[in-house]
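pinging the channel bc i need a second pair of eyes. not urgent but kinda urgent?? the chain im working w is below, pasted from the shared doc
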Amino acid sequence: MTTYQYCTPEWLANSLILFRDNPKYKNAFQKLTMKVAFRIRADPTLGIDRDILFAGYVDQGEITKLAFISESEAQEEADYILSASPQQWTKLLRKESLFAGDIALGRIAIEKGSKPGVIKIAPYSTTFVNALTQIDLQFPDEMSPEEMEIYREKINQFRTELGV
């Protein structure tokens, strides 16, 4: 099985394909409409030199966007912008923490949107995390120094190409 690096276009593209191919996700999100942008805060020690955002938009079970976006797109399009360190998002994706608890404890900050609104979508969080982790992921803390430098270059390159 191919391993994809966290926070790369390949991760999101393959997660989107698997999400759309699996009817259990459409059924689980049937009553959900949300536009959430996830901010991964900069941490140069983990190859993320500047904050990076990706969007997860769902409309009644259909995923309409799973992609990296610019700050302006997030501000204009997203109902919610949630922000955390790369380490915190990694814990969530590794299933070492829970979304609702991370929100309650302030480990994930709500930059845009209301806390009651985020609490309404919280029951879907485990399913969303499962959709994003159907593939093998390599996180920055698992990379050698050489892999980290290649990863940093890759992130900077795709961000330049996409304008994000």
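so The chain has eight helices and seven strands. and Residues 145-162 form the longest helix (18 residues). — does that match what u expected or am i reading it wrong
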